[in-house]
Amino acid sequence: MQSLGGIRSWPATWRTTTASMTTTTTTTESVRKVAQVLTVAGSDSGAGAGIQADIKVCAARGVYCASVITAVTAQNTRGVQSVHLLPPHFVSEQLKSVLSDFEIDVVKTGMLPSPEIVQVLLQSLSDYPVRALVVDPVMVSTSGHVLAGSSILSIFRERLLPVADIITPNVKEASALLGGVPIQTLAEMRSAAKSLHEMGPRFVLVKGGDLPDSSDSVDVYFDGNEFHELHSPRIATRNTHGTGCTLASCIAAELAKGSNMLSAVKVAKRFVDTALNYSKDIVIGKGMQGPFDHFLGLKKDPQSYRQSTFNPDDLFLYAVTDSRMNKKWNRSIVDAVKAAIQGGATIVQIREKEAETREFLEEAKACVDICRSNGVCLLINDRIDIALACDADGVHVGQSDMPVDQVRSLLGPDKIIGVSCKTQEQAHQAWKDGADYIGSGGVFPTNTKANNRTIGLDGLKEVCKASKLPVVAIGGIGISNAESVMRIDEPNLKGVAVVSALFDQECVLSQAKKLHKTLQESKREH
Ligand SMILES: Cc1ncc(COP(=O)(O)OP(=O)(O)O)c(N)n1
Ligand SMILES: Cc1ncsc1CCOP(=O)(O)O
């Protein structure tokens, strides 16, 4: 069999596009090769472990994961009810399909339930060498169900371990591989790691999560020369099902991205700890081995997801805050936002140019609560981090802020992104990059934003005509001229965004009401 120790000579992860590649439209562009893992493992119907966990881990770590299924288990949080092995020839078919087509970097194995299946795996790896092999020697489920019997031990010892780059047994698996030696102390884990290393894998990680009497969870890593003890706090939770699969898959994913082995192991351990800690109190299933959340998202309040897509009509009366003005009039931003909404504001943007991050975040959180309870969307000006931290409905960015396509990839598909545009080209780019609306101005001169070029009603009209996105006009707009703005009569001009017309006023509520009435009247007339 060809050597699988390829991570010693890691090829470049970048390559140049060729005419034969279908993923790009040009022949000169450089594209990044997608890191790819193949998991060869059993299916867990409860999806906490096995193939399902492996795919989730790789997705969470930004790595593509193909899957070859060795067995299908009927399994839930109470245990394994039944196991159906796939015929070795069919496992072989799957391996061939994947390995002959994909550029798999790393193979990770989980449940290998029969010597015949190990045999076909070894043959496939010899036919289609990969850069690294991560072996999680799964033998018994957390609930005590035997997933690979003792018949597997000799082929593991004699054939699989010698070609593995790393093996990740827990103490029970390590003991079984070593013929039943007792492993109950750290010293015995070290000794086991050494003995396992002599069987051929380049690295050994003996996981100590099951060791009795230790307040930390300690894993022992051995590279043939040096030992490393990797400590993490023990997390009290029933939701530990799939930790072994998760750790090994994460190691595979990190190796696929180009990490060295020790870094991959450390990141994987941190990943598991973070996910366990996040998920310690979630309740899925009625049994004693709950799954955990690889994406750290299940605890998010479902109410906080927007129930519908962005409604352009919300741009009708857009209230953009200004802390200096609110200070001048001696009111808090929260009171200002409340009054604007009561007066008819249909969307709110927090535009804070001076506040410290901590203060900004606290204010933003309070405003999110008010807006959400009133069914009004709240956006954050410029600060993607604040928008993420306070779970705002979106952000508004300018031409010199973070590019819209990057904002979109950070915020995901369901957040609102607005972008300032003064020209037709910018309007076109905003649409291409995934913005939801355009803010266009300054339509009139303004004292609120220094050195801002005025584009006039003609400039606004031009942007509207070029834009496939809804537009909101901004800059120097108030009760006296709002009607003239709406009168340009472009169907995608949805409203006006105002700062001083609301917030540099003694009474935000009455100004908002008046402006709202003006806008409604101009709408009726056109
Ligand atoms: C609705 C809306 N339109 C335009 C702007 C201006 O944003 P930007 O160009 O980022 O300038 P600053 O607001 O950061 O000074 C806006 N805030 N809102
Ligand atoms: C933020 C911004 N962007 C273009 S003009 C402007 C300021 C708008 O403030 P005002 O409504 O007080 O003129």
TrEMBL record:
InterPro entries: Aldolase_TIM, HMP/HMP-P_kinase_dom, PM/HMP-P_kinase-1, Ribokinase-like, ThiamineP_synth_sf, ThiamineP_synth_TenI, TMP_synthase
Protein name, as recorded: Thiamine biosynthetic bifunctional enzyme BTH1, chloroplastic
Family annotation (Gene3D superfamilies): 3.40.1190.20, Aldolase class I
Keywords: ATP-binding, Chloroplast, Kinase, Magnesium, Metal-binding, Multifunctional enzyme, Nucleotide-binding, Plastid, Thiamine biosynthesis, Transferase, Transit peptide
Organism: Raphanus sativus (Radish)
Plastid listed as a keyword: yes
Source taxon at top rank: Eukaryota
Compartments (UniProt record): Plastid, Chloroplast
Role this protein plays: Essential for thiamine biosynthesis. Bifunctional enzyme that catalyzes the phosphorylation of hydroxymethylpyrimidine phosphate (HMP-P) to HMP-PP and condenses 4-methyl-5-(beta-hydroxyethyl)thiazole monophosphate (THZ-P) and 2-methyl-4-amino-5-hydroxymethyl pyrimidine pyrophosphate (HMP-PP) to form thiamine monophosphate (TMP).
GO cellular component, one term: chloroplast
